[in-house]
């Protein structure tokens, strides 16, 4: 959620023309419930659609150790890890806790992996001026967005170590892989939005043929942290 540096400045070589929003944002209705929203400050000046006009965030998954208590959604029993890019594309030696994997001398970083989500960013001025967008709306661009569920008591010690690698998660005994039929996320980035936070909602299927529902509403460094994770797994004899 936090934008320590502006990855967009290195990805745009010229100033983009401003596109003034004629109306306020209208959230689409979803099968479960509508995302909660907060007012955007002032009159935002620029909307960039990703991955067409913007490459999207240079990250692999909604997991980070940059902001206290903002690692992954968990209900003390299960934790959910949403992947923005194919888990198979995550380098084995990359620390997912850093969240961002910027382009550099060694390659394109996370931008070298296909983006599995789409949406738009709202900027007050633009990526050449602002530290981060003030709002990012994300939805799945594929019908099977990967979401992994693991036991919280297995993941928590890994997070506490300060480093998280894809192999650590893939090797957990409790791992249940899910595929989101739909995914919606509203992000108010730390350092740009007046009240940082995130709301995400998802439904889909599990690898054993079961179903899942996921909801996370996190506001202002954890002043509000509401999580719902429901897994309906098929009995072994029905698989």
Give a description of the structure.
It is globular and about 55 Å long. The protein is mainly beta. Helix content is 6%, strand content 30%. A hairpin with a 4-residue loop joins strand 8 and strand 9 (224-232). The model is unreliable at 1-34 (pLDDT under 50). It has helices at 152-160, 166-170; strands at 46-50, 78-82, 117-123, 135-140, 145-151, 176-188, 197-206, 211-219, 224-232. It has one domain. Strands 1, 2, 3, 4, 5, 6, 7, 8 and 9 form a 9-stranded antiparallel beta sheet that branches.
Number of domains: 1
Largest sheet: 9 strands, antiparallel
Strand content: 25-35%
Classify the helix fraction into a percent range.
under 10%
What is the mean pLDDT? 84
How many H/I helices? 2
Order of helices and strands: EEEEEHHEEEE
Uncertain segments = 1-34
Number of strand elements: 9
- The dominant shape is globular
Class by SSE composition: mainly beta
Q: Any idea what the radius of gyration is?
A: 18 Å
Q: Give the terminus-to-terminus CA distance.
A: 38 Å
